[in-house]
Amino acid sequence: MLSKSRIKHINSLKIKKFRELHRQFIAEGSKLVTELMKNFYQISGIYATREWILENEPLITSGNFIVTEISASDLNRITALTTSSPVLAVVDIPGDSYAFSGFSEGLTLLLDDIKDPGNLGTIIRIADWFGIGQVICSETTVDLYNPKTVQATMGSIARIKVIYCDLVKTLSGIAPGKKIYGTFLDGENIYSQELDQTGVIIIGNESQGISHEVAQFVTDKLLIPGFHAPNNLTGSAESLNASIAAAIICSEFRRR
Amino acid sequence: MLSKSRIKHINSLKIKKFRELHRQFIAEGSKLVTELMKNFYQISGIYATREWILENEPLITSGNFIVTEISASDLNRITALTTSSPVLAVVDIPGDSYAFSGFSEGLTLLLDDIKDPGNLGTIIRIADWFGIGQVICSETTVDLYNPKTVQATMGSIARIKVIYCDLVKTLSGIAPGKKIYGTFLDGENIYSQELDQTGVIIIGNESQGISHEVAQFVTDKLLIPGFHAPNNLTGSAESLNASIAAAIICSEFRRR
Predict the structure, then answer these.
(1) Does ipTM exceed 0.95?
(2) Which of A6, A234, B15, B79 is deepest in the core (most CB within 10 A)?
(3) B4-92 adopts what CATH topology?
(4) CA distance, residue B130 to nearest chain A CA (Å)
(5) Distance from B156 to chain A by nearest Cα, in Å?
(6) Is the pTM value of this prediction over 0.95?
């Protein structure tokens, strides 16, 4: 049974202001919660159904986690999802939130004002899949600890360094010769370009694309070409979703 | 000003049962609504702010559309979005809903039980970008006219033939020699495989992948390989989101 004040506290963490005040966020779903448990996140509370607790007994015992058994209907009162999952965790935001201290040796993703939490989470999951350990976000990018972002990472949040900083300042200090890629309507066909495995890939805002201030740093303009099939109406889509574009670009870099 | 019964009717269309009863769906956002207006959808009502009406006067007049001016706060009472847009349309579901009548000559996407409306809409947008005019869905796939699906297509719904049917029956009748692709953990590296531009690409369910009944028809098993960077923790993501996988596969087919 959950107290009213506990329910109120957990629900407050759906709002950025309270996440910053309490330095906590919520994570839901068995896959995500167990991933955070295994990756040494500080977890201040786990709320789960009896079935989930029984299934995950070894992991719970090994890490001395404190788990409160609650009913499915109590989970419905704290979930941020449309349909609640059998487990919700209240997790501490890591104290050593990453500050920018130089570009990684490999590929870096740089997000210029991504607004949709699902897109941010999905891009972090893509970075994890394609072995890109560094994701740099503009200060205007949606919060990493938004419940929808956390959810969409499917646990990859535990493995990817996500840094928020001033992109113009950061790009101003970049080593000469470093390749900076971005997609533009007047870019070169990505499928036939040389792509440097130590470069920076910029993903622009969902509706505005890459901002002018950031675009000035791009050294190589790329284009994902659309395809017009002869016998149908297709090929008129004006753009791709930001996370879809990120996936296609990362795939192109990594297949070489 | 909207009547109570009108508000009730529009809100009922967020539920599949009522969309089927009234044969109507809702579309929101300027891009999407104007796309449907230009593509000859039957629109029974458009509800918009004064600003939107002034901006779109030529299109409204050219198609004799009936537009009701309402306030932003009234739009908030009917929207299916978190933040309402300046326009919402009530659109008739096309009477000639597509029945399966054979595979197209080009590529076909076949969706095996996609559950997330955002994924379905995003996949339709990807099909449009890559010139794939035919999308076949299992009967268990989420409804095409779910507001979140419609939204995520960003207008591509007007150009792509989406067919719901029994996948096993449909695949049983396929011409011998036709290539049927699907991704599996024991598949062949997609980046080095021959890919036939007249094939069928199967995208599986978000958590279960491709079902056993459908998998038996696959002629070529593919794998999108992950990438493990030497100096970081990445590469442990267990899977990619269904629409992300669809994007990478379509991109691979089309770049050849």
Answers:
(1) no
(2) A234
(3) 60s Ribosomal Protein L30; Chain: A; (3.30.1330)
(4) 5
(5) 6
(6) no
